Amino acid sequence: MKNEDLLKIAKKFGTPTYVYDASKIESQYKRLTSSFKEVKNLRINYAVKALSNISILKYIKNLGAGIDTVSVQEVILGLKAGFDPDKIIYTPNGVSVKEIEKVAEMGVNINIDNLNVLEQFGNLNPNVPICIRINPHVMAGGNNKISVGHIDSKFGISIHQIPLLLRIIQNTNIKVNGIHMHTGSDILDIEVFIHAAEILFDAASKFEDLDFIDFGSGFKVPYSTGDNETNIEELGEKLSKRFNEFCKEYGKDLTLAFEPGKFLVSEAGSFLCSVNSIKQTTSTVFAQVDSGFNHFVRPMMYGSNHDIINISNPNDSERFYSVVGYICETDTFANNKRISRINEYDVLCFKNAGAYCFTMASNYNSRYKPSEILFFNNKPFEIRKRETIEDILKNQVVIDI
Ligand SMILES: *Cc1c(COP(=O)(O)O)cnc(C)c1O
Known about the structure:
Elements: H1 3-13, E1 17-21, H2 22-35, E2 41-47, H3 54-63, E3 66-69, H4 72-80, E4 88-90, H5 97-105, E5 109-112, H6 115-124, E6 130-135, E7 157-158, H7 162-172, E8 176-180, H8 190-204, E9 212-214, H9 232-250, E10 255-258, H10 262-265, E11 269-280, E12 285-289, H11 298-302, E13 308-310, E14 318-324, E15 332-340, E16 347-350, E17 371-376, E18 379-384, H12 389-393
Parallel strand pairs: 1-17, 2-3, 2-10, 3-4, 4-5, 5-6, 6-7, 6-8, 8-9, 9-10, 12-14
Antiparallel strand pairs: 1-11, 11-12, 11-16, 13-16, 14-15, 17-18
Helix pairs in contact: 2-3, 2-9, 6-7, 8-9
The structure holds pyridoxal-5'-phosphate (PLP).
């Protein structure tokens, strides 16, 4: 999106606000599907937790994707957005068997990653086909917080427990229709991914009734100019070839599934906030914006580095700024970053603000959550209004005291 379009949106809808460029979501979707064009049955299940606005879900549905969900609430959102239940997969971790049964009743595909839960669920619902989430124990991912495939991770059923898994399946008579893995985010080494895939193929060969193999996600997107990213085209070429070979050995054209979140929506998003004040200390120039980790927590939680552009004054001489928020807590978005000269009331644009940004926003400091705008066919649509004090007070009960 052009700076002028973003600036117009900031003027019209106010700040702080999230803006999503629909055309970028579409081009990422097409990039992924064309990388795997050699695979007969490909299924992209968008990971709802990255960005769950219902208009975004509808848009992604129209592209032809299914969805990956992690809670019953995400499933309900998906159904409300118009997804058929069989286009939804539910991959919970640490939820109750009751919740899994509730979702199964809606006709959604169930992915289980706990032997104990599998046994309980299977005994109660022997007719519901189940996908099994395997932990291949391949160390991958950008950092420890987002890497979920290691040996002491809480996710997945260990490959070392497959004999036990097979016994439970035999005893309960469950039909296993899919095998799944999701090793973590920010995978850069294609060979590591292929290695994990081989482990998954090996596990898959032990099940006779599979319909699909789900390779999860973990595609890394570039966060700033020159940053590295997963080479999707290379992955597509190598994995497709191997997948097609496996299908031959298996004797059936299985579906190859992925469940990208970040890859589809991260780069489509921009976060716009306004500069409240400039504060010069003995060592630092702070640009203080009308936001904080209540709206945008990734830099503080994951140490992620987002490009920040002064869209009100993009071509002035650059200076070093520490961009911080207005929360009474340390909420540093960037330390000593080179940004075109900032004045009060300028609008700053944080890049890569599509994934795990709005969905992690809170009302800390009793601030309103930002609004959300979808830029579609060159027009901005407000897809979430800014909150008001009524939203903060909703569900609070004032008692006589
Ligand atoms: C979060 C998650 C994803 C999406 O991961 P990204 O890094 O955003 O692509 C996919 N599958 C599962 C099971 C997840 O929990």
